[in-house]
């Protein structure tokens, strides 16, 4: 919790300073807008050109491999938070996902679990705090990380201090991994961010509004769950039409529904309706 | 992370496009979920099969958007909801201008999104609306790089059949998001100010395409 503890007095101060503004939904707006502009400049001057170059010289399969490899690390963190939230069902599903991808997917560079119908469920420590009752606090734009709230910033701090990438040693390798992940992620989003630049009227407000809505819906979802969530019928397993044409698991069982049950322990409840 | 909002937005637009198209002639006979499912799959297939569309040729993409998407969206309703309480203060001329400019902006958004479609798959979630409902939500998930992304639609039954009135991408309703942006713009510059901003944006986009 150290990063959070360090953050709170700073933010409290910033919040006081921000009281002069008119928008009660965004008390830190002057600071936030400044940081938003700085992030944007850094992106345009450094990150975007580097990512463009990286994309130009790196073959697509390698970039996919890098994406999947870090995705696998991300899944470990999601799983940790699933369990911290009492979400046993998603935790076990993601455990399977990480296991399959690490063992059969060349240390996570191939995403075999998705082919099997074990999908990604991103989760983070900000949502874990939210699940146990912590409110979001004001909207904050973080240096480098962009849109956040006081609570989610604490979550990001915990991730940086204790997350899977922090376990890589020596520390220089850990920073290298973070940097490669950053560049690779940015490269994946090049065409998307170009589109975003074109359509947003006020990119700051657009981003803030989108972030707040997105987090709100995620928080509602984690708070709606029972304290220990052993699983609910997975609607994707029931309604997926392409399982019939065979994910990797379909050879194991005669019907698509049964194939899904191999990866979803709760699929029994679905079976009768098919 | 820094890129997450970019990702959300990009996917959102990619996905919005993937789902919105609807075949006009089928609209009368299909239920809302059938409509969304047929059309989502159709648009992904069209984009995958047509190299010109995939490469993002501006003319082809714009034509595609106008034929496949526009007939099935209730732009007046979307504009009205996005402008919110200011709609009552707007004159008929302002309303028309707002609708035209906002529609144009969304067309550019969809056109940009067409280029993002690759190998996404659309899966339908259970449909739980009563049979006589006139205002329904259809819930889908788009599988993108192994992650199921939320993509929900609101549809209303109009005289011209079911029309899409809002889209929810990863928890973000399109109309809600634009409402906060529009409110800020109108608060600072008035309704005419918002119209001018939209016009300017569209002109820049038109130049970028040409």
Which structural class do the helices and strands of chain B define? Answer: alpha+beta
Strand count, sense and barrel status of the largest sheet of chain A are: 2 strands, antiparallel
Distance between the termini of chain B: 34 Å
What is the tally of beta strands of chain B?
Answer: 5
Number of helices of chain A: 12
- Poorly predicted parts of chain B: 17-27
Question: Which radius of gyration of chain B do the C-alpha atoms yield?
Answer: 17 Å
Series of secondary-structure elements of chain B, N-terminal to C-terminal: HHHHHHEEEEEH
Low-confidence parts of chain A lasting 5 or more residues at pLDDT below 50?
12-21, 238-274
Give helix % range of chain B. Answer: 55-70%
Distance between the termini of chain A: 48 Å
Q: What is the molecular shape of chain A?
A: globular
Q: Percent of residues of chain A in helical segments?
A: 55-70%
Number of helices of chain B: 7
Rg calc of chain A: 21 Å
Biggest sheet, spatial arrangement of strands of chain B = 1-2-3-4-5
| Average pLDDT rating of chain A | 78
Classify the oligomer.
Answer: heterodimer
Spatial strand sequence of the major β-sheet of chain A: 1-2
**DSSP strand count of chain A:** 2
- Most extensive interface, chain pair and sizes: A-B, 52 and 50 residues
């Amino acid at each position: 919790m150290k990063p959070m503890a360090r953050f709170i007095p700073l933010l409290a101060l910033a919040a006081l300073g921000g009281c002069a503004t008119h928008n009660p939904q965004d008390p830190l707006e002057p600071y936030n807008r400044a940081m938003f502009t700085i992030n944007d400049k850094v992106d345009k001057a450094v990150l975007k050109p580097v990512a463009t170059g990286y994309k130009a010289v790196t073959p697509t399969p390698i970039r996919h491999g890098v994406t999947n490899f870090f995705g696998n690390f991300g899944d470990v963190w999601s799983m940790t938070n699933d369990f911290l939230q009492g979400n046993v069902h998603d935790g076990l599903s993601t455990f399977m996902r990480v296991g399959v991808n690490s063992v059969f997917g060349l240390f996570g560079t191939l995403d075999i679990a998705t082919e099997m119908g074990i999908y990604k469920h991103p989760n983070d420590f900000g949502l874990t705090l939210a699940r146990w009752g912590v409110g979001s606090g004001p909207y904050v734009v973080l240096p480098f990380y962009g849109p956040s709230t006081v609570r989610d910033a604490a979550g990001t701090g915990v991730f940086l201090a204790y997350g899977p990438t922090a376990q890589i040693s020596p520390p220089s390798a850990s920073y290298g991994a973070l940097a490669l992940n950053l560049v690779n992620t940015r490269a994946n989003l090049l065409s998307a961010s170009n589109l975003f630049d074109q359509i947003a009227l006020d990119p700051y407000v657009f981003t803030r509004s989108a972030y707040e809505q997105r987090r709100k819906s995620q928080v509602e979802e984690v708070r709606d769950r029972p304290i220990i969530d052993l699983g609910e019928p997975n609607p994707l397993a029931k309604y997926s039409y392409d399982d019939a044409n065979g994910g990797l698991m379909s050879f194991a069982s005669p019907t698509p529904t049964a194939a899904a049950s191999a990866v979803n322990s709760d699929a029994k409840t679905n079976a009768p309706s098919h | 992370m820094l890129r997450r909002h970019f990702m959300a937005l990009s996917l959102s637009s990619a996905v919005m496009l993937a789902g919105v198209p609807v075949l006009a002639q089928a609209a009368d006979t299909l239920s809302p979920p059938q409509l969304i499912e047929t059309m989502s799959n159709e648009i992904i297939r069209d984009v995958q099969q047509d190299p010109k569309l995939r490469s993002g040729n501006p003319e082809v993409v714009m034509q595609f958007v106008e034929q496949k998407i526009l007939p099935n969206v209730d732009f007046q309703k979307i504009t009205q909801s996005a402008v919110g309480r200011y709609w009552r203060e707007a004159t008929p001329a302002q309303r028309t201008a707002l609708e035209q400019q906002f529609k144009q902006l969304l067309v550019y958004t969809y056109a940009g999104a067409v280029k993002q479609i690759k190998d996404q798959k659309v899966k339908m979630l259970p449909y739980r609306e009563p049979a006589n409902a006139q205002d329904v939500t259809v819930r889908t998930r788009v599988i993108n790089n192994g992650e199921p992304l939320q993509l929900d639609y609101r549809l209303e039954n109009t005289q011209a059949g079911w029309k899409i009135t809002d889209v929810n991408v990863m928890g973000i309703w399109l109309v809600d998001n634009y409402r906060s942006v529009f409110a800020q713009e109108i608060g600072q510059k008035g309704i005419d100010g918002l119209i001018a901003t939209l016009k300017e944006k569209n002109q820049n986009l038109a130049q970028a395409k040409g």
